[in-house]
Structures
1.
Amino acid sequence: MMYWKEAWAARLAWMLPLGVFLGLVLVHSDLPGVYMDAVNPDFLAAQWLHRGHNPGAGIPSKIFPILGSFYHGLQNAYLGLPFFAVTGFSVTSLRLEQAVFGLILLAALYQLTRRLTGAHGLALATGIGLATELAFTASFRTQFYIVLGGAAWLVVSMLLALPAEGGSWIVRRRVFWSGVFFGLASYGYFVLAFFAPAMAILVACWIPRRDWGRWVAGAVVGVSPFLLGFLSLLAKKHGVEPTLEFVRGMLGQLKPFDASGASGNNLQYAWALLGLATSDAANEAMIFGQGLPGAWGAMKAWWLVAAVAGLVAIGIVLVCRRQPQATMMILPGLMPISFVAVASLFGHRLWAHHFSVLLPFVYLLPALLAAKLAELARLPARPVPMAVVVALALAVIGGNLVQQARFHEWLAKTGGRGRSSDALTTLALEARGVPANVAYLFPEWGFFTSFAFLTGNRVRYSVDIEPATIAKLEKDGITEFRLVYWNAADEGRYRQALQANGIQSLEARTFPSREGQPVFHWLRGGLGGHP
């Protein structure tokens, strides 16, 4: 009877990190406000469910929408179709939909850690550590979420690269599916492809040579939506030249490789981004306009560096001793090296949200290092003594929860600041009840995606104030306009532009933050004596 209970406890332990993570996602789930990129491409689900004349986003397609941009796909939008059809459109439903990928990542990370270390306790500590990591949970409140959505498939790919065990869900064509999920990770967000050099080494060591071709074939299938998306764009634009013109217009002055290679300056910049991503300072800057002081978060980048250095050093020693098979567990230590090396080629074209994909390794690699050191030291019984695991896990989780408490205190006090203020939610919720003759005008970046999502795409809006646009809206029965903008200093020029389009009786309004600071403004006016 006791064995049966222990077996079931071990089987269900992977669910505990998922529950912890979901609980932290739901705390103040309606905060902060939804920044424009924090709901792109999810807002497209609202436009697909409730079609209208509102402007959208994404790459044009001849068949069906495939690419959200030239650097990410539409997996969140397609997940959102059934999800939002059931839950409706709210900030909380958005958090939950985006958190699905966090749940997948945590489940795969638990199983990967367990398989590599052979220790349920160490896998549980790793899972709960990441589940309570503020840099991880807060990423599902900002634009960082889309990068971690791709990271979920990366961890699944690594797990499937290991041989199947008894009770595995995927046994047949396991190698092929490992490749598919790696390609899908790159479709989720292009920076996941930066792991390819290390993943190639991992595949070469974990998978028999006769199956390498299957893994490559799977990776091609997984990333094929990118190719399909470009072919569909080519068909939509009716030729190569119009397509190239569109691509040039979309990319503008990005010049992603104009960064002089992996120079010392670029490596220094990559280190700074790693610190911003793993400490949560980047998410806090997005939400509050500043990082919250604290040494705990700043330690995380050093954890990762120490774990990578330790695993690489052990690997070198084992190879010198001609024990290559003993290096199987430590190969994931190459993944952050691969990512940083490739990312350095892009230099300042990247920012901290791209480096958030390294968060799972902040917890995975120390666990692998601890297990390997225990194995080399020939500690008795379990791979890592349970008392040590529990003590370290409690210390880490305690530090994480203290950091979480401070973050949520600021969240409740401010509601988010700047372009992450919950005043954006107020704008959309008020708009849900407006008459059909009202349209919102968003000539500035930062408004329309969250507005389209939170109103279920049922309220008319436009993203410019050109005379032709105003004339078209008037033809469709719009008589009242509400132009929304960020800075009060721009009121004069917007007032003049509206009046030039025949919109009169203009009234100004300011939307404040919870702290009483102005966040954005609108000018409201009408045509033909409206209102």
2.
Amino acid sequence: MYRIRRLGAALAVLLGAGALLAPAGSAQAAGPAVELDVPKTAYLPKRGTSPTGGLRLWLAPQPGAGRATQSDVTLKVDASDLDSVARIRTRRECGDHAMGATDVVDCALGTLTRGKDNYPDAVYIEAVPGARLGSHGTIRYTFSAPGAEDVVFETDVRIEGPDLRPRKEKPREGDAPGASFGFKPQIRNAGAFPAQGFGLTIRSPRSAFARQYSNCRYGPEGASTSADCWFDQRIEPGQAYEVVEPISVAVPDTMVNGSFTYKPYVQGMTGNAEEDLGATGTDPGLRPGTGPELKVRPVDTPADAFTDRFGLGEVRLHTSQTADLQVRADAIEGTTGSTAESTFQLRNAGPGRISGTSLRITVPEGLSVVAPTPPPDPDNELEWEWECSRIEERVYLCGPDNPLEPGDTWETTLEFRIDRNVRGARGLLEAVHDPERPANDPKKSNDSAPIEVRATGGPLVEPTEPNPKPASATGDSEGKDDSMLLVMAVVLGTVLGGGALVFALRVRAARRKAVPEPTGPTGHGETSGPDET
């Protein structure tokens, strides 16, 4: 993955992330001035980068030869080979030089301390205007220190690069809680230029990855929910590759629904979106696996089996775990013309963990929702979050931001104005969820509860429409869930401007408490939803 050249009596090779540049040759040699991982190939975007100019060179030198400190370290950056390809600017330790003003700079880094982040925030690079796609040149870094050997690192800088895309993945269904399965990701180079090597980052909120392979890096301890792997495999345009051995994925005991994602990347030397500190070994929180090297092999998977550019490979997990969800609605009591509050609850009775479930509230005829007023906040210390959105006339969608563990209850309170006293008017509280993430709720009959109205005063008027019925009673449970999918994913995931459509204020967080059995006309039910995103 890395190419390192040292000037002096001998040649040393950096073996893996964090390896030492061992001294060789003369017995009088004090060892290299620094240790450093530098990618042998880096890619720069042809487009402009930022108003300040350039991407930061992400170098992290450590004292050489295992020393705790190294004083008087200097760095020479030589970009003279990048003519018509890229240009640099410098500041701070390297002096103030505008972009393109010089090709060679000397930097005084001072004392380096082992274990400390020694990132010199001093050198930035960008493509020169008019740089040809695919053009490249070499940038060299020479580190020196008194009594130590000079060390030279080189990186081949290329303008633009490959377009690596992950495969479109099918959902997995029926995995048992606590089970494990093997997964083989695939990637394809859809671009016009080869990749000189590539990495994979795999992430999950809860699924764990076994620490199997030496060229992958995992979390420092316990179950690792991430893996960063690097492959020194050149990928030509149009080629696709798959890992040879499967990556083991563990399913959490309480998972009803979940997912994990992966994406390929090409390694850059800059701290931009292409950079991944896990595979390079510069992230101290990650550790390499203890097994053999994970290798890749070419495959003949068609191009349309892969995602669009910048897409993620996502594997959805629909396990055999279940979650019994319940809803509860307080009755709305008051006189005509007055306002009254009602609290709506969503409880997860387990045994699975749920996320993505929302409450659909159909307001009874004759009532309207009162927009909340922010509480006094003279010190500007409160954070307001909206949790309900009007999606239809007299229909609102509310839901928690966080997953509900078994035994958790989430609730919200809305204020209603009793505009008219409508005979027999009732609203409806329903639990809705994303149909692409089945809930495995064993008691769907409990997914709804009536919203009773006990109004007094004013003339009693006849209803102009029938009271709403739950989806299970109309036989339209799938259709109603489909209508909620976009709203749940977009409306509840963003803050809508203007406030015209969002009326409920987040007033209560998820609580771990039992919901009492309902009495009288308040009603209760159960709801279902996906466990994890």
3.
Amino acid sequence: MLPGYRQEPSPLRKLVTKSLFYVTIVTASLFYGLCVALLPPLFLLYFSFPVLVLVLLTIWALPDGTRGPLGLLTFSFFAFAAVLVIWPDYMAVQIPGFAWISARRIWSWMLALSLLLCLSMSGEMRRELADRMGKTKPFWIMAATYFALHWLTLPISATVAVSFNQSLNQVFVWGLPLIAATFLFDKPKNLRRWEVLILIAVAINCVISILEYRNGRLLWADHIPGFLTVQDEVLQRILQGAIRDGEYRVTSVFTVALCLAEFLSLAVPYALHRAFSSNHLGRILFWVLVDLVLLGAIILTRARLGIVGLLVSHSVFLLLWGAKRWMAKGRDLIGPAISLAYPVAASAFIFAMLFVPAVHNRTIGGGSTGFSDDSRKVQFHMFWPKLFRNPFGYGTARSGDTLDYHLPSGMVTVDSYFISVGLDYGVLGLICFFGMFFYTFALASRTYLTSNSKEAELALPLACGIAVLFFVRLVLSQSDNVPFIFILFGMTIAMYARYAAAPKRQGLGAAAVPARTMPGQLQPAE
């Protein structure tokens, strides 16, 4: 035969090939139909993996050379972030035998699809991500190890199915937003969108909190549509609300008041940033008022961690802001005054926390919060022997059953994410998870202090937010706001790569290039 030609298959071979194809399709369809009819709904998830593999192969085979659906990725990311803070996660569709289909989960799927499409179709995006990861290798080593431990601990989990489902969910809700944020937030417009989103969400939650406090219960407690009602004991406790010292504790769209307080304290640095970056007295007073409103909303939660988070936000903000002002304006008195007065003020506050009852009870604990303090001490006392008995961890979502601490009501509880991570993923998990906090805080602080770009000033609220989440996670185990942790990590990586690492590398490159000799200029002697 001539080159470039091939022999046409015989009619018999064509018939056999088509017959085998149709027999395979029919057999697979009968098998899946039999599984749907006989197996419990929970097991159907595992039979969807071949279909998922085919979808992934299709995405992988898409042609390269375009930017992919970048607009869809951006929209999906911000929609996912919005539902975290303006929509209750417990308002979800429940299909018997399946996990809740919540708005958070739906948008995480959309985010996953758009992110995979962009990664498959855009070589430029892959190169940019690889470059940013290369500039922050220690972080990605810790992140990869932490997520790998989700799967490496499956064989030692006492409930493999539960651990598997939770690990898969955390990849979608934590891991993929981390990668998306790492790519998206080197663009100034996305940084501004994020700031606006946080401030709008704060306004919505503050209004809901005030109305909820006046109502004495959740505003939608008796108005949840039937198709969004899930039959769960935890949901019933959420709808009943909680009271401390005879006062109702607001929760807004979160599962507990503690998570609302955590989010509000996380938003404080953005109000401070607006106040300190404005030269207009009216705007400054407005953002100071917003800061006070946030304090009032935190007080309505009756959560000490909110007060602690607010204090951490103000402390870190003033420390870094004063240091940069001192570095930028050496003869200015405000920067040195704040920086030099900071140790004295911090010492005075620590003294007040230890010896002034009113300050002690609102921060460290005491009074009506004594039971929470005692239970947390007991939990840490129970935690250490179980950690050292198995320093490799007990598997995802196993911390509650492993610790086996019960409230007087009989409910199993864990009151510290330090305990949760340690029991789930062991000593290595603790080092990686909390190591990411220290590393990204250092990157955010460095980006803010070394860059003169206006957009890089948003690294200051990022540094404050990371510090807040670190301290709050020591005394809070609920996972409502954990996606925010990984989003802030990704934002910090993106901003550092653009505003700190890239200018530094360009400066080194410029220094390495010898100056050109102008016409008529003498060459230096060798």
4.
Amino acid sequence: MKNRVDWTDERLGSNVYEDMVSVLISRLHPQAQRIDGAGGDKGRDVQVPLPTGLEIFELKSFTGRLDERSGRRRQVSDSLRNAAKHNPVAWYLVVPINHTDGELAWFNDLTAKYPFPCVWRGKDWLDNQMASHPELPRYYLEGSNDEIVSMMREINQEQAALTRGVTDLVDRVRTLKDRLNSLDPHYEFSFSVQPNGSVNVTTHPRYPGAEKDRPIQVGGVFSFPDTEDGKQAAQALQDSFDYGTATVVSSEFVKNFSIDAPADFGGNFDGGELRVGGAIDNTPLADARFALRIRDAQGVVKAHLPLEAKERTSGRRGIELKLEDLGGVAKVVTRFDVSTHQAKINYSFHMPERSLPCILLPVVRFLAEAKEGRGATLVLNGKEIGPPMDLPASTPNVEESLKLLRVLDDIQRLSGVYFPIPQSLTDEEFESIKEVHRYLTSETNIERWDYVSFTIPRASLDSPELQQLQQGDSVANLVLRNEIVLRLGEDVFNLGCLNRTYASAKLESLTAVAGDSGAEDAVAVKIVPGDDTSASVSLM
């Protein structure tokens, strides 16, 4: 290959030039977006949306001089004027011409009236970039066949002895990897050898959108019987082509297939299992906010569940977007059919074995609102997409689950003690949860009581209240402190303390209790109501 690109080469027409330089800019700026000029690019061949604003690149394949007679200056002026309508923060003219003083003066006069910087990227800049990315001119101008033959020759030479053992092997594999990755400007390659001798070659896009600039094409002859398995396999393969989804076609359905892949990695194959990976679109979804929304028959919003995009695939018919709620419980798959401008939404829910109530609560609330006669719609940036999808009847027992989650969420928020949702509950545990919730959410609870037993140190018998009780008198407004304890299975959670104020209490009995040393240093006390059997319970 020549050291430098001949920009006057007849093979370098405007289309080839734009393809090659667009890929270069995508390599330099992974966020780059190429604008299809079929309907007019409006002064943008490539645009790069950055946090600081939009940068625009205008690509011109002119060689020679940028003079007025040829109409080239007018073309550049028109492109800049159209680009300015998009409010860029920078504009670049990329042209294989090093400007003269006169051309630079004209360019400066032209761009002076615009509020954003304008830069001339000329021949020297392009030459430097092509020297740094030699695979670009190799691919677009010379083709890679000679390189492939040369690399295959190197692979054949790998039968030589590995005199330095594994070190030799690593060096040779690295060299082959570098050679392999010099073949194509759109993809990088990795390969591995399995114990059974098979070699796996994997393509990796060098930049977002590479799969659009150079798509991998698959064709073949398949035989799908009119059975349930055959129909499912046929539909899965069709979905791969239409929406870029991953699938595996069993060898029983494959007669032959062909693959047109970069760097001549492909060919024609007779039979065998066909694995089609997802055509994942890595183009960032800048500022895209998704949600699933439910409205009732009167159009009132009953539920709104935020979602985030997890994966996007694209095919010849449209795109498939996989979304999840922020807790990873709800899975939403949306397909957009470009030809019909219709969207299809499917959603499912996976309840994890261990999760906090606050994670599940938004999803279960959404399920509780998914009732017959209501519709669900996908929302993008606050706007509903497509017509509502009819909803079936509510999920069984969802209302009971929602009530329990709300109670557990209240308990955890108010106490600051968090624990996973129990997999199952006994009747006693369920009643204990309701009791704890009542204590934590009410300022004061009034209860009736018949007796209370507690143990205190012997020294506490000298307190005024205990002295009065020992004298046989009733004590008004006796206050005892209790811990709030919730027992769920083998777990015990201390959720705070309560003050219990007994309106009237009398002593029933005092019993000495022996400690670990055998000394009777504690006393078991039993009290019963006096004239009033009420007790008020409040959170400390």
